[in-house]
Write the C-alpha cells for this entry.
Amino acid sequence: MIRYALKCEHHHEFEAWFSNSTAFDEQKARALIECPHCGSVQVEKAIMAPMVRTSEAVESRQSDMRKAVAEAMHRVRTHVEQNFDYVGDSFAREARDMHEGLAPERPIYGEASRDEVRELIDDGIPVAPLPIPAGEAPKPKTLN
C-alpha cells in the first residue's frame, strides 16, 4: 500500500491509499478518484515529505501501544472487580443457573476450567476471559 497526498483543481488537499504506484494513474485516468470536499475528479499528487521511520521511533511507538493496551486492560479489570460479584470456582454453575432462570441475573466473574468454559459456550451462555495485563498478577479474592 502507498499513501499519496492529493489536491483537487479547487486546491482542496486530502490523502488516499493505493495498492501500488500505478494504481493511482489507472484510477485517475478512469476518473475514479474524487475530492471528498467538492467531488471534483480533477486531482493531482501534491508535494509530500517522505516518511522515514527509524527503528527508535518504531520501538517507541510499539512501547506506547503496549502501555495503552495494558492501561485499557487494567481499567476493564478494575471495573469488573468493583462492579461485579466474585463467585470464585462457582462461576460455571452460577452462569448456567442465571442462564436457565434458576438464579437472578447479575454481573459475575470468577474462575472456570477450559472444559467448563467450552460447555458454557456450546450451550449459548456468553462468557469472556477477564484481561490480566502482563506483569500484573490476579488479586486474591474472597467470595461475596
